[in-house]
Design goal:
The structure holds 2 protein chains of 2 kinds. By secondary structure, chain A is of the alpha/beta class. Chain A is 46% helix and 21% strand. In chain A, a hairpin with a 2-residue loop joins strand 14 and strand 15. The radius of gyration of chain A is 37 Å and the shape is elongated. Chain B is 35% helix and 21% strand. Chain B has 4 helices and 5 strands, in the order E-H-E-H-E-H-E-E-H. The chains are: A alpha/beta, B alpha/beta.
Chain lengths: 489, 130
Amino acid sequence: MSDYSQKQNFDPRILIIDDEKRVRDGCTKVLTAEGYSVFSAQNGQEGIKMIEASHYDIVLLDLMMPGLSGFDVLGHVKSIHPETVLIVISGYATLEHSIKAMKKGAFDFIPKPFSPDQLRVTVSKAIDFTYALQDIATEKSRMRMLINHLTDGVLTTDTEKNVVLANPAFLSMLDCGSISAIGKSVSQLTGNKKLHDLIDACLSIPDGEFAELTEEIDDLNEKKKVEMVIGAKALPFRDRTGRNIGTITMLRDITAANRINREKSDFVSMVSHEIRNPLGAVMAQLKILSDELLGEINARQKETIQRASLRLNALAELTTDLLDLAKIESGLLVMEKEQVDMKALLDDLVSFHRPGAEEKNISLKLETASGLDPVLSNKVNMEEVFSNLITNAIKYSREGTRITLTAKKEKNYLLISVADEGFGMSREDQDRVFERFFRIKDAKRRMITGTGLGLSIVKNIIESHNGMIRLESEPDKGSTFHVYLPIHD
Amino acid sequence: MSNDKLILVVDDDPDLVESVSIKLESENFKVQKAYDGVEAWEKIKAEKPDLVILDVMMPRKNGYELCDELKADDNYKDITVVLLTAVGDAVTSTSYTHMDGKTTMADDFVPKPIDLDNLMEIVKENLDVS
């Protein structure tokens, strides 16, 4: 519990307020021997003066003194230094007194006369309590400092949607300036519907069930006329028994990231379109020439034109992939998700790609158990992923090998694996194979065309579905891509 | 030996129109050319074609609009419309999921960049000529 480094630097200061010199001296002797810094005062007035002048961790206080009574001193100490631990000493060790002193905030009670051991035990208990208090206070101020200096906005509420904490970043996102938000209802701070809905949804999550809700909010602050996009994330906050006691909402300003992403995508789309159309026109012209529609050409001329067409074709493919990538990265790809029957989808794909595989005498088959859970996903995206993996497997396999797709449930995921017996790849290449434009260039693969974007697109799609892709591969043995897609209930 | 079928080729890229026309003529089709949707309408009214090869992205009137207008007109709705669609237009399209053409009234579609042999097959299939 307690912070060890602090304990080492902590030198507890103890003040004894008692009108009996014998008691003062006795306590001072015992406690000094324990290594504490001990001070004393002979009446209430003197004690208060000392407490006002400096801070004491523990005050030993006689209840019955001439002049100012111990109870008056107690109340006064609590009002100036609420964290000071008070131990009451009294010859009138009645239950009534002890209850009264405890009610006023005393930590413990020592009846007179007491033995040095009794004193040591009580003081040591109070010291431990002080440590704990200090730890909590330090931790609290550390957390507060941290939260107050975050650039992300943080809002915590109770179950009634009243603000428990709102950091400066949050208030500034709402343009609430320096108003004191604590204790106010969230609706007094903002009328933003999305934010309210998010917190409400969070509060309605049943106890014991965990969820993290996210939302993109672009109308948080309508007074500001500038564009602001906020990524909001909300979690229910639970006590030790798992009961809902409120919510924590974090807001991140993603305006700049969004804008950069959009501009990049616009640029990529523009370039791709502007390149694709002329490419298409030139490809058609070359086709007219090589088909000899404009007159005969010799064999070498024809071959040259055909090779030029192939190069243009590769360029056209590259622009297609670039467009896909731009769409996926900017989130423009319509991500309408439905429950997709993966067995049916894979069946279709396997039939679609089988002729291509058979041209290389490769057997392509799907092995799955029936009754697989459907996967909440975008169907076109899923087709793209597995079509890509199958096409790659065919491309990078020798004649007469096998490609096997398997699908099975693994914990909360549907695991779909595409295994080939092809060229495989080294450890270093495996690390880079999902990078954009990365292509393995060796003797076996030199003549195989591609853009180096396929697997990058695949990975992007899978991750946007909260899935994972893993690769197992060994040179000359083959590669297996494992795709994990979360199954939602 | 002309097969007496008239095809209108519409695209704002003159080089592409030229290449497609050469290919069609080599297969004995009669060809008309237009370079935007408005001009295409004029050509259609002057001489009704059997089939229109129609680009989507064009100035003045785009291919979707022209296609809708043709299909809504009793005099012209029997003209076969083959749309030239680019990946990235409106709807997601992958190598085997051609959704673009299907969202319109077009009879068929060919993805861009055009494979002339594929285009020719689709034209012949739709006009029922061998």
